[in-house]
Write a sequence for this structure.
């Protein structure tokens, strides 16, 4: 079994026979290694394999401590103690034997034995006969003045996760993905693993071009497709490109994902939210008083979820699709179509992509986050000709290109037919989940109305007037172990609609009651996330708080 190797300075020393390594070198741990000279007892030159033949690295920097006047043993103790304190040596890590560490550092074995003994006595290390020396299990206090680490995952936790936006991860097609990966890697050319086009691997762009035309009616070709690390990245690239074309504002739906709005603002675009009703976003208002500004105030695009409005669940009516495309043609603007769950319609064939109405004015965005898993970070944009070059240039600046192996695997998954079979399986699974939710509410909380079309991975539950306030309902949900959000969290803001010069919401006719500012509370429930064994208990907890609403 290979043992950890150590290097005494910031840069590993060269092998003994390297042409630029002197035959005589200090033997006090100052940048020494197995090629150092000296007698056998003190770690001089020996006939053994160079350090490059050993296992994992253990970086110990004795140089600065020796230069500051510390003795060799004290310098070694300090270096090991610091490595344990700052977490580089985790509890349970097995250290090299005293002989191996002495050889690697070019110091006497007895010096290492004494240093190990001192740190064991202090509680930093542990030693048992026959088990070697390991880092002791102990609580390492955070050094004074160092802030606590910020938790990257800010999702709230609870017994029942009903947050919208994630699929049932237990459905990920592990066997199909593995088979596709093996096939893809076996046939991939060597240059597939080199730096490539920022648009993405041609194998995936060809597969997506055929798939999207067949399943979603998208009109594109591989040269106009760009693979990105999630739709969020794609949206950021588009926003930056639009800003570069002189756009100052972008229209968004009055309810939508707050992180998407943050991405747009970060690119320097002001937001002009559109009101919603049961037919989707009011795109007929794009030509309103605030929709045709010029210069820095120019409205350059509109972001829509036409197949299944997120989160309210409405499908964008045909006349409103046509109105958005007409606005884009007349005002030199663009429609950004976020088709986040277009494959999952349960009551009828899904509506085709809006992009087919005008591929030169509609940017189509798709993702594997719902059909496979968000952790893959696989999404794509079907771009108009005029946006291909600026968006590809921004992608190259952002991260050069998306990872190759997942692109090759996904391309094989699509072309083999495994992806179609997986999506059909998921569609049946999520339809059953939604049916269970609707049935449970009808039986145990009949006052609650499920709004929107039968599609996607979430539903909006509209409570009747006079119900408890949304904040109180959410607090009760947390107490019951439920993790979910209220509809108000997705709202663009109380003054949002004024950005297009519209009248105040309470004076405007045609607003749907479930999105009016003073409407009864509504909850957004993601029914896809819990695994099968946990879903009945999640439904019980949900119906329990709704019964008492």
């Amino acid at each position: 079994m290979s043992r950890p190797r150590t290097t005494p300075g910031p840069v590993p020393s060269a092998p003994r026979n390297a042409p630029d390594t002197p035959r005589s070198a200090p033997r006090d741990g100052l940048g020494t290694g197995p090629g150092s000279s000296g007698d056998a007892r003190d770690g001089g030159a020996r006939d053994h394999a160079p350090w490059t033949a050993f296992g994992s690295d253990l970086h110990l920097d004795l140089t600065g401590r020796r230069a500051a006047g510390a003795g060799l043993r004290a310098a070694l103790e300090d270096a090991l103690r610091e490595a344990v304190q700052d977490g580089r040596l985790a509890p349970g890590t097995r250290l090299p034997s005293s002989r191996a560490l002495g050889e690697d550092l070019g110091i006497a074995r007895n010096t290492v034995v004494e240093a190990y003994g001192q740190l064991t006595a202090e509680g930093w290390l542990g030693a048992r006969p026959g088990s070697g020396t390991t880092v002791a299990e102990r609580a390492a206090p955070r050094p004074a003045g160092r802030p606590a680490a910020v938790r990257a995952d800010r999702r709230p936790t609870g017994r029942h996760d009903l947050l919208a936006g994630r699929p049932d991860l237990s459905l990920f097609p592990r066997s199909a993905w593995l088979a596709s990966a093996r096939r893809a890697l076996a046939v991939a050319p060597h240059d597939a693993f080199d730096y490539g086009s920022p648009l993405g691997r041609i194998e995936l762009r060809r597969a997506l071009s055929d798939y999207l035309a067949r399943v979603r009616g998208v009109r594109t070709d591989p040269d106009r497709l760009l693979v990105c690390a999630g739709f969020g990245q794609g949206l950021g690239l588009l926003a930056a490109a639009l800003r570069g074309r002189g756009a100052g504002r972008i229209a968004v739906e009055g309810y939508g994902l707050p992180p998407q709005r943050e991405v747009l603002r970060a690119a320097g675009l002001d937001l002009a939210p559109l009101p919603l009703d049961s037919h989707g976003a009011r795109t007929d208002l794009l030509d309103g008083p605030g929709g045709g500004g010029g210069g820095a105030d120019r409205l350059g695009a509109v972001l829509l979820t036409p197949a299944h409005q997120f989160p309210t669940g409405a499908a964008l009516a045909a006349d409103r699709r046509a109105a958005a495309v007409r606005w884009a043609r007349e005002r030199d603007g663009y429609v950004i179509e976020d088709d986040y769950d277009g494959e999952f319609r349960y009551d009828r064939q899904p509506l085709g992509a809006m992009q087919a109405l005008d591929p030169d004015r509609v940017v189509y965005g798709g993702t594997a986050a719902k059909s496979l898993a968000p952790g893959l970070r696989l999404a794509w944009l079907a771009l108009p000709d005029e946006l291909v070059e600026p968006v590809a240039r921004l992608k190259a600046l952002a991260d050069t290109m998306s990872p190759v192996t997942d692109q090759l695997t996904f391309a094989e998954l699509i072309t083999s037919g495994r992806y179609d079979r997986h999506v059909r399986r998921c569609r049946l699974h999520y339809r059953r989940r939604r049916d269970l939710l609707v049935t449970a509410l009808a039986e145990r909380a009949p006052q609650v109305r499920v709004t929107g079309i039968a599609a996607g991975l979430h539903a909006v539950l509209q409570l009747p007037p006079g119900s408890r306030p949304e904040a109180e309902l959410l607090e009760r949900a947390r107490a019951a172990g439920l993790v979910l959000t209220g509809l108000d969290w997705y709202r663009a803001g109380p003054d949002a609609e004024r950005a297009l010069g519209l009248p105040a919401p309470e004076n405007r006719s045609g607003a749907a009651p479930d999105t009016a500012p003073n409407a009864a509370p509504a909850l957004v429930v993601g029914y896809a996330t819990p695994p099968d064994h946990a879903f009945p208990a999640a439904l019980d907890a949900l119906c329990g708080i709704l019964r008492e609403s």
Observations:
- Residues 1-55, 495-514 have pLDDT under 50 and may be disordered.
